[in-house]
Amino acid sequence: MSNGAIFYACQSGRYVLKCVGDVRLTLCSSLDAHLQQVFACAGIEDILIDLTETDAIDSTSLGLIAKLAVKSQQLGLAKPALVSTNEDVTRVLMSMGFDHVFLLLDQLPTSSSDLQALPWVQESDDQVKARIIAAHRVLMGLNESNREAFQDLIKALEC
Predict the structure, then answer these.
(1) Is 71 helix (H, G, I), strand (E, B) or coil?
(2) What span, in angstroms and rounded, lies between the C-alpha atoms of 139 and 16?
(3) DSSP-assigned letter for residue 125
């Protein structure tokens, strides 16, 4: 597996987020800070999450991506599209209930040129822990299975 990286593009109201390699909680601060900026700016109309080059993705990163879907729903936007061509990643997405908040696709519908790398955000351990907890709370809100799977993790992190 390759080290993970996250790229994005935003043009004419269309926002693309692309995850590459092994996407882990080491990227959660950067991703969460970026997503806060994205929704602070008006004008997003369509959202596409590209996981076609994702080898693996952890639950913290998935929680942040789910947060993107929840926030877009709150803003009255259409369901974001999420593209996954990796069977293992798709299986995790389905088990986490992503099919309820995303339009899941198995092939990329558009070119993802002109992507920029997310800027690296360095935070304290407490700030990262807070982001991990928040991301898992979003996952827990998607379905009962997630709630059961992550409740002990949340309790442990909060202690």
Answers:
(1) helix
(2) 21
(3) H
The residues, any chain, with a CB within 8 Å of residue 45's CB and separated by 6 or more, are 13, 14, 77
Per the structure, the count of domains in the chain is: 1
Structural domain span for residue 21: 5-158
**Cα of 26 vs its chain's centroid, Å:** 13
The residues near 70 (Cβ < 8 Å, ≥ 6 apart) are 101, 138, 141
The 10s digit of each residue's pLDDT in 51-100 is: 999 999 999 999 999 999 999 999 899 999 999 999 999 999 999 999 99
Q: Which residues neighbour 126 within 8 Å (Cβ) at sequence distance 6 or greater? A: none
24: domain CATH number is 3.30.750.24
Give pTM, 2 decimals. Answer: 0.79
Q: What percent of the chain has pLDDT over 90?
A: 67
- 3-state SS assignment for residue 7: strand
